[in-house]
Amino acid sequence: MRILSVRHESWPLRGVFAISRGARTQSEVVVVEVREGDAVGRGECVPYPRYGESVAGVVAALEQLAEPVARGLERTELENRLEAGAARNALDCALWDLAAKARGRPVHELAGLPAPHPVVTAFTISLDAPDAMAARAAEARAYPLLKLKLGGEGDLERVRAVRAAVPNTRLMVDANEAWTPGQLPDYLAAMANLGVELVEQPLHAGEDAALAGVAHPVPICADESCHTSADVPQLGGRYDVVNIKLDKAGGLTEAMRVATAAQANDLRVMVGTMMGTSLLMAPAMLLASTAEWVDLDGPLWLARDRDDALRWDGTHLHPPTRALWG
User: Fold this and answer.
1) 153 burial level (CB within 10 Å; 0-12, 13-18, 19+)
2) Where in the sequence numbering do the catalytic residues fall?
3) By residue range, what is the domain housing residue 61?
4) For the segment 177-221, what is each residue's pLDDT rounded down to a tens digit?
5) Are residues 99 and 156 in the same domain?
6) What is the dihedral of CA 277, 281, 283, 288, to 10 degrees?
7) How far lies 291's CA from each of 2, 111, 166, 259, 287, in Å?
8) How far apart are CA 53 and CA 60, in angstroms?
9) Which residues are bridge partners to 28 per DSSP?
């Protein structure tokens, strides 16, 4: 018989992490464990208020599945029990991990994916005043790719200040839906002139249609506008890239479908996650190896990480060990 356990954990950050929708000093995660005999599978998720999620709601949704899990609930059934989102992600990944440990084979083999390898991940510069962001970018100049969190007004000054501080560093920006359609043409042109290589979710998801009517001098990536594979076909002509996050997709199972749908619709792929521990990042590493952009720096923002955490070797993030996940 399988035994399900669910718990909420708080992980302090090294500082204040700010985006256009607010700031935080802790990462609030939900951890799922599924035990069967001596094997234990684990998964983690970050409930996100932007998507109507809360820690209490996710914990409650998962605890209601204790009996079905005990009876042998599998990933194929899970999609009928939970909507795509954080709760399903944690349990889906725990079931993948359990299968890998029970069968003595890594998840990538079970899933038919290539073996993960070390990747370069973006390091995020939190939203702040231009001079503060420039100073943090200079401190992080060892990372080859920086991701700048933006907030609307003042964004051109922010990016200019950062570019002056790190003239040779690759830059990408994430507006988190903070730009307006009126700002879009000038902002995109400025990003191109400043050597920004990717603009993530510039407009609110409900304003996507405006993206089809402007030039894309920089590739535009869908984040809040793309959760599951069903969202992908409508992104053509509006976006150039899809940001795949397991917490949005509802787990590795659906995230693989998103990657397949993106390829079928001529969309490039970025892999990211919410702000969590190495346990949250680990399953995403299976997709990161084939993505053009990777944003899995969450653990670098933590004051401490889990035992058997993911390892950074200079600028590269390495795949998880069996002790962590998969």
Assistant:
1) exposed
2) 149, 245
3) 2-109
4) 999 999 999 999 999 999 999 999 999 999 999 999 999 999 999
5) no
6) -170
7) 34, 17, 25, 9, 7
8) 11
9) 10
